[in-house]
Specification:
heterodimer, A: 8 helices, B: about 240 residues, alpha+beta, four-stranded antiparallel sheet, binds zinc ion
Chain lengths: ~200, ~240
């Protein structure tokens, strides 16, 4: 049976799902201290994710600022049925970062318009192994290592680089349907490896 | 229509990591309210992605909080959305507020149809017509009004409904029923768990039946039966049904 708890009991070295939910509930009531608590818990992940996708520190900070203002604005509209607070906030952060990548991409496409096969250059896998990022990072690295090559590429290009599935298919020179399939398989395998599924 | 279960199901992973193009994204968003399985997949994929994202955590410069706090201080918080009625399981509905433009257009057409019907019906009684217009407008403007299109059982007909729990009102437009013979008409019923209540006679207008009725209460279905034009206390035949 599936347990009614969407988030693994804890994100290591961070507030638990329940604590975040409490902070968000109070934020929704205009509680500035709770909002700051939420920010302290999630600013690191939000900023880091945005920086990873955008590869630009200054832009990542702008995105993080937008994300938290949006969290403040929409706190009362958060729907627990759609997932945990951490997932909600990081989904917002990812979407905003990806939107920026796409807007920039559209601009540079207009300039280039050269018709290359690859929509963007794809430097070798840079799945993180910078510095000491603790358990989280190690666990994710290990789980990414368990994917097939194509699954990992599909996840890397879409999630970490902000490609659409279509762009990822072009970059990898495989049919769109296989990117869709590998991305799905990859996320399922990550989900199980990271202990998200009940 | 695509066969249910084909495309949007396969797009949830892409949706969870924001990797869909615009048309695909819209297809998924239209599909999600109707598919428990996809909502569960999406929840799990987002939790998974959140762990990937959390693993990227970076040191945060102190100045960032000041900027966030300052901007949040100038930003109005939105109130919660009207709580959905989770009391009973129902087919998905489309909220007018978030509806696509076609739904808004359909709403306008339907409103015009209902108002037209009322105007003909009550020709010469401008008072009540004006009152009715206000009711229709109030229903369309209500925060929780939802639009649905449903088949009418035991017929080829389909019904478009606007339902507001809060104003306890249903507006309905039925297309595809044969015209009633002279002296007869179609009567609307609210079907409660323990019986039926009349919700009035439908207006017939150019092959379209329209009506608007308060008193929805806890009705789980709407019934439509053919009755004498004056209406019946209880249906004289088993009504056709429309889910709400
Ligand atoms: Zn589905």
């Amino acid at each position: 049976m599936r347990v009614d708890e969407a988030v693994p009991a804890h994100p290591p070295d961070g507030a638990g799902a329940r604590e975040l939910a409490g902070l968000l509930r109070r934020t929704a009531l205009g509680d500035a201290a709770a909002f700051e608590g939420l920010y302290r818990e999630l600013a690191g992940p939000v900023l880091g994710l945005a920086a990873r996708v955008l590869r630009d520190r200054a832009q990542a900070e702008e995105v993080a600022q937008e994300v938290f203002v949006e969290v403040w604005r929409l706190a009362a509209r958060y729907d627990p049925e759609a997932g945990g607070v951490r997932a909600w906030v990081l989904t917002v952060a990812h979407r905003r970062a990806v939107d920026r990548v796409r807007a920039e991409q559209a601009a540079s496409d207009r300039e280039l318009r050269a018709g290359r096969a690859e929509p963007r250059s794809t430097p070798a896998d840079e799945v993180p192994d910078q510095v000491e990022r603790g358990l989280d990072r190690e666990r994710v690295r290990r789980c990414l290592g368990r994917l097939t090559e194509l699954q990992r590429e599909a996840v890397r290009l879409t999630y970490y680089r902000g490609y659409t599935q279509r762009e990822a298919a072009a970059a990898l020179r495989v049919p769109l349907t296989s990117v869709k399939g590998r991305l799905r398989d990859g996320l399922i395998r990550l989900r199980d490896c990271l202990g998200v599924a009940g | 229509m695509k066969r249910r279960g084909a495309e949007p199901h396969g797009l949830i992973a892409g949706y969870a990591v924001n990797a869909l193009d615009e048309a695909e994204r819209k297809a998924v968003e239209a599909h999600l309210p109707a598919c428990e399985e996809c909502r569960r997949d999406l929840r799990e994929f987002r939790e998974t992605a959140a762990l990937l994202g959390s693993a990227e955590a970076a040191p945060v410069p102190e100045g960032l909080w000041e900027r966030v706090r300052e901007q949040a201080g100038r930003t109005r918080q939105l109130p919660p959305e009207a709580a959905p009625d989770r009391g009973r399981v129902r087919p998905p509905r489309r909220r007018l507020r978030t509806a696509l433009p076609w739904a808004v257009a359909a709403a306008a057409v339907l409103a015009a149809a209902v108002l037209g019907g009322v105007a003909v019906e009550q020709n010469g009684r401008m008072e009540s017509m004006r009152a009715h217009t206000a009711e229709v407008e109030a229903l369309l403007a209500a925060e929780d009004t939802e639009m649905m299109t449903r088949p009418v059982s035991h017929s080829e007909a389909s019904a478009t409904l606007f339902v507001s729990q809060r104003s306890d009102t249903v507006m309905i437009m039925v297309e595809g029923l044969p015209p009633a013979p002279d002296g007869m008409g179609y009567q609307l019923w609210y079907v409660d768990p323990d019986g039926m209540r009349s919700a009035g006679m439908l207006h017939s207008d150019g092959g379209m039946l329209t009506g608007m009725s308060p008193g929805l209460g806890d009705a789980v279905e709407i019934g439509i039966s053919m009755e004498p034009s004056g209406g019946a206390e209880q249906p004289t035949e088993e009504p056709m049904k429309v889910e709400v």
